[in-house]
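To assess whether the prediction recovers the assembly geometry, we first specified each molecular entity separately, as shown.
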Amino acid sequence: MIPVPDRTARPTRISFDHVSVEFATANGPLKVVDDVSYDVRDGEFVSIIGPSGCGKTTMMNIVAGFVQPSGGTVLLDGKPIAGPGPDRGVIFQEYGVFPWLTVKENIAFGLKLRANHVAATEREEICARYMRLMGLADFADAWPRTLSGGMRQRLAIARAYAVRPAFLLMDEPFGALDAQTRSAMQDLLLEVLQTEGKTVMLITHSVEEAVYLTSRIIVMTARPTRIREIIDVPFGYPRDERLHESPEFGALRSHIRELVMREYAVQARQFIPSST
Amino acid sequence: MRRVALILAPWLGIVAVWYAVHYTAIVNPALVPTPHAVAAQLLTLAGQRLPLDIWMSTQRVFLGVFFGIVLAVPVGFVLGWYRNLRGFIDPLINFFRALPPIALIPLVIVYFGIDELSKVVILFYASFFAGVIVMYEGIAQISPIYLRVARTLGASDAEIFVKVIVPLTVPHTLTALRVALGVAWATLVASELIAAQQGLGSLIQNAASFFQLDIIYVGIICIGFIALAMDIALRKLTRRLIAWQERIA
Ligand SMILES: Nc1ncnc2c1ncn2[C@@H]1O[C@H](COP(=O)(O)OP(=O)(O)O)[C@@H](O)[C@H]1O
Ligand SMILES: [Mg+2]
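The predicted structure of the complete assembly is given in tokenized form:
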């Protein structure tokens, strides 16, 4: 096994401090996040796992700058989050590839914005690089509607990467892909992260994916979501497919799966309509 | 070659049925001029008033649609974008849209007179309400995901408007334009009820007073074909401008 570096030696980049979120809905306030505290260190690859609808996307949206916590604080490099920005690349659950732009134009979109001021020649280089890296070089001028799901996913990642964000926030990025494509995409992600260190938050509901990819797993409860357990994954990088077969991997997977299943059970009980 | 034949087939079918109706005398043949009589009349009129009629009508339709769409695009955009507004404005728009232009003619004459302006106003009215609905239905369907993505990439409000909202608005604008053109041609005859000397609508009405059925047919055929030609041209343009879309609405 590759040794795991000590995480506490690194500076804190994202910190959640007693964070709660409440949404106003037609049926009154809905508490989604309840007193959540954790931090993400520089260069860490953290996954957040929990039953669907528990509040994972909401937590990511706070970091992305789309949602304000109703209580507690979230700091990014020690400062409050004012809104979305190119320092945090977001891969949305529904990709959000721009259908009116070609593959290359999609990647160039962020580079042409005033906030990122990238010179034209450099822009060409960056586009070419990420198209090559993501296997899109032959599709530079293709319309997104002609791409497969996996290719759209790679395009969304390439577009987010192109503006060189320090953080990468991924919301169930591989959920919609078939098993083979997903596995290929996971390895590609590991490979790309290996060459460009980033601080990454990955939301997933796949235990397998969380253990295989990330260095720290935050298991969330059913809504209103709290932290169930934080697990440090005892495997270093680089990782490869063989990791799936190791006994340690299997043990960790069973442990987390059990935690998550228990939360799904809690959630199922919540959904039984209360008799009035 | 095959394609041309397929396109022509239904038209030839209509002509055949037309002849059949005339010669089998299902309808009194005196009330159904033959296609060749109508064609002859068309050729005669083409050397007389027809070019000016077509010119005048096309001009009115263009002006009405132009101003209608110029107003419908921003209004439809605002209604589609600010959903809260829709609840208040929607009933208003449907109220006015339901009014048939013919019913408005007396009022239009009172307020706008009997010159070109009043005819264009009628066409403007019809185009605007047709266009605005297409526009706001389309805009309301735009997914907020694209705005979010643009923001996370660092786009300012102005950049989001120019680089995201405008491109997403183009297809709806073109559809609104097509619908408005169709509605305007359909409203043309009504608008030319207002003391028009020239125009395809006035041609039809004059012919009606003298019971010249063949001329009525010429007028109808001209309106149909011009509207069809414009629709085809617009569809071609749409395909060029929004090649990124799967289907052309
Ligand atoms: N803007 C909002 N307004 C009201 N309710 C919301 C809003 N965003 C999310 N929710 C609700 O919060 C809960 C958690 O949502 P989400 O964070 O998307 O869950 P997850 O990503 O874990 O599946 C859901 O019940 C959802 O309906
Ligand atoms: Mg989610």
